[in-house]
Amino acid sequence: MTRHLVVITAGLGRPSSTRLLADRLTAATREQVAAQGATDDLDVQVVELRDLANEIAQNMVTGFPGPQLRAAIDATTGADALIAVTPVFTGSYSGLFKSFFDVIDKDALTGTPVLIAATGGTPRHSLVLEHAMRPLFTYLRAVVMPTAVYAATADWGTVPADGDAPLATRITRAATELTPYLTAPAPRPAPAETLTPFADQLAALAPQE
Amino acid sequence: MQFGIFTVGDVTMDPTNGRTPSEHERIKAMVTIAQKAEEVGLDVFATGEHHNPPFVPSSPTTMLGYVAARTDHLILSTSTTLITTNDPVKIAEDFAMLQHLADGRVDLMLGRGNTGPVYPWFGKDIRQGIPLAVENYALLHKLWREDTVDWAGKFRTPLQSFTSTPRPLDDVPPFVWHGSIRSPEIAEQAAYYGDGFFANNIFWPKEHFKQLIGLYRERYAYYGHGSADQAIVGLGGQVFMRKNSQDAVREFRPYFDNAPVYGHGPSLEEFTEQTPLTVGSPQEVIDKTLTFRDTFGDYQRQLFLMDHAGLPLKTVLEQLDILGEEVVPVLRREFAAGRPAHVPDGPTHQALVARRDNQEVSPA
Predict the structure, then answer these.
(1) Is the confidence at residue B231, as pLDDT, over 70?
(2) For residue A144, is it within any domain?
(3) pTM of the model
(4) Of B264, B287, B288, which Cα lies nearest the Cα of B276?
(5) B226 — phi, psi (to 5°)?
(6) CB contact under 8 A, A62 and B203
(7) How far apart are CA B296 and CA B213, in angstroms?
(8) Which of A64-68, A75-79, B72-76, B143-147 has the lowest mean pLDDT?
(9) Disulfide: which of A11, A89, B131, B177 matches B198 by Cβ 3.0-4.6 Å?
(10) SUPFAM superfamilies from the xrefs (chain A) (predicted)?
(11) Is the pLDDT at A191 greater than 90, yes or no?
(12) Per residue in B25-82, pLDDT tens?
């Protein structure tokens, strides 16, 4: 059976270094999944939030998603695992990145494994991952991978003489952490539709004798 | 099948001239609109209930009592009556009184309300929204069906030997619709009692409501009130018409673009594609409304939102003329064609009395 990995990237540039980091993380995850000898197919869908910017803003106003946004939300909430990457804007995740998660039902990502990552101009913003991204997904009751990946502009050029670049090492480690969720025998069960029968709703309100 | 209009009762600036009506003007306009609805042959007028500006209808039974005195056939209803924050005892009394004054031309739609602060303003906890709706309606239901009520619950002071007066007209309570935009619990509640379910579908895509109405129909049958296609369904609609489509679009666009609910969001074109809103010729409104049956099945009541977003009274009255003369007669004919005989008509007091009398004479 097919496992679904959805990659959410909030970069605005074309090309974007946020998308570049998302692609590196996706490739590393693919590699790890293949290395585990997984028999399941891995389906990867990339959600570029830039393309959904209008529909996200409209959803804020109308309360419902347009067709493209609805497809992206359905893919995200139905995924076996997520990779979520944002640029750092004004000391935090970008407004567009946050807005996407604002229009998703707050319970829809409960239990979903998420690899978080961010890009920025300097390494000084790297704690955005721990002080903004991780609490956001904790609120959504997602399962956030221990390793979060930050890429500053300089990281794209840093290759020490004595071994792997630190960025590449972190990418591999993060991908390794996410991999079990895409290869384990039983996928996360879909939440059951819960409808409390009306008699039970009434009984719950009966005064205690 | 019943056709009518429902109003939010907003006081909104007309974006084309910057003029905002006074509360007095708006209230009188609502009454004029209700009378016009009867004049053009519509069946139902329903008013919202709000407790904050810029909305005027805080006291629906007062308004509907006045309209009752000035109309002969129109069914007077609400959209919605707040079952969470109103005292169910007062709802029982107010609507029974209105039912007598209007000779039975009354039903009501219950809803939870979407303005958070109304809960604390009326001493309630918004986190208890669904339980309040469940318990308050259970009491309302009892008050209208049992002459003397002993009752205790979670949210209201207990009652001993209480009789809600006046008793419902002919001992038949007003028909109740349960209105919901997103809660399956409310569809379940409507199904449990065999009441009507009104899906105010005007702001959202149809897939969502298809699920909600499907659930209501399925549970209605489960509780033994009839088959799924006999469940009592009401739907919203929102239209603006001119003879020529392009004139309708040109005239309505500034109201759309500045409307309190969806203004400054999607374009008129996007919104008409995704929701029931139709801006165009009477024929386009007919075509779109007829698709509701394909999506949701044969249904009992169709209410249109006609008087919001600052549209001037004169325009609204013209719209009602078009609706009554050119649209609704065709819809009545088309909806009647191919409608199975076992699908019930829209609920009226006379029909409910007849059904009660039938059940009494036929052996159990």
Answers:
(1) yes
(2) yes
(3) 0.90
(4) B288
(5) 150, -175
(6) yes
(7) 7
(8) A64-68
(9) B177
(10) Flavoproteins
(11) no
(12) 999 999 999 999 999 999 999 999 999 999 999 999 999 999 999 999 999 999 999 9
Strand A92-93, strand A42-48: pairing: unpaired
CA–CA distance, A41 with A58 (Å, rounded to integer): 35
- What's the total number of domains in chain A? 1
Max distance between CA atoms of chain B, in angstroms, equals: 65
Sequence spans of domains, chain B: 2-361
Give CA torsion, residues B121, B56, B141, B120, to 10 deg. Answer: -10
How many Cβ pairs within 8 Å bridge chains A and B? 61
The Cα A99–Cα A43 span in angstroms is 25
Domain-located, residue A131: yes
Let me know if domain B2-361 sits in CATH 3.20.20.30.
Answer: yes
Amino acid at A31: E
At residue A131, the pLDDT reads 98
Kindly list the residues from chain B whose CB atom is less than 8 angstroms away from the CB atom of residue A201.
Answer: 130-131, 134, 185, 188-189
Q: How far is CA B168 from the centre of its chain?
A: 20
Cβ-nearest to A62 among B135, B154, B265: B265
* pLDDT score recorded for residue A189: 56
Residue A209 lies in a domain: no
Instruction: Give me chain A's average pLDDT, please.
Output: 91
Predicted confidence (pLDDT) at residue B357 exceeds the cutoff of 90: yes
| Tens digit of each residue's pLDDT (9 = 90 or more) over B204-224 | 778 889 999 999 999 999 999
Over the range A46-77, which residues count as b (16 or more CB within 10 Å of their CB) and which as e?
A: ebbbbebbebbbbbeebebbbeebbebbebbb
ipTM: 0.78
| Residue B131 to residue A63, Cβ atoms within 8 A | no
Interface of A with B in 93-122 (CB under 8 A): none
Residue A208 in domain: no
Counts of helices then strands in chain A (DSSP H, E): 9, 7
Question: So what's the pLDDT on residue A55?
Answer: 95
- Report residue A53: phi and psi, to 5°: -55, -45
Give yes or no for A186 touching B (CB within 8 A): no
Best mutation target among A52, A58, A105 (most B Cβ atoms within 10 Å) is: A58
Tokens representing A206 are 């009966």
Domain with residue A13: its CATH number is 3.40.50.360
| Tokens, residue B55 | 């909305």
Range of the domain at A77: 3-203
Report the pLDDT value the prediction gives residue B364, as an integer from 0 to 100: 47
